């Protein structure tokens, strides 16, 4: 069984994580906007 510290060493840089998070937020906002625009 691996220790948590080993996993931490293989994580991508903080900038990469922030970019992925930002992209996820942007795409989520687009999905929300698209669902609001569609007539229900």
Concise summary:
The chain has 40 residues and is mostly helical.
Judged by helices, strands and strand pairing, the structural class is mainly alpha
**Average pLDDT figure:** 83
Strand content: under 5%
Radius of gyration: 17 Å
How many β-strand stretches? 0
Number of helices: 2
For the sheet with most strands, the description reads: none
Please tell me what the overall shape is: elongated
Low-pLDDT stretches: none
List the quaternary state of the chains.
single chain
Question: What does the secondary structure layout of this molecule look like, with pairings?
Answer:
Elements: H1 4-9, H2 14-37
Explain the overall architecture.
The protein has two helices and no strands. It is mostly helical and 40 residues long. 0% of the residues are buried.
List descriptors.
elongated, mainly alpha, 40 residues
């Amino acid at each position: 069984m691996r220790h948590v510290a080993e996993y931490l060493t293989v994580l991508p840089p903080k900038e990469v994580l922030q970019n992925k998070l930002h992209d996820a937020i942007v795409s989520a906002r687009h999905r929300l906007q698209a669902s609001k625009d569609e007539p229900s």
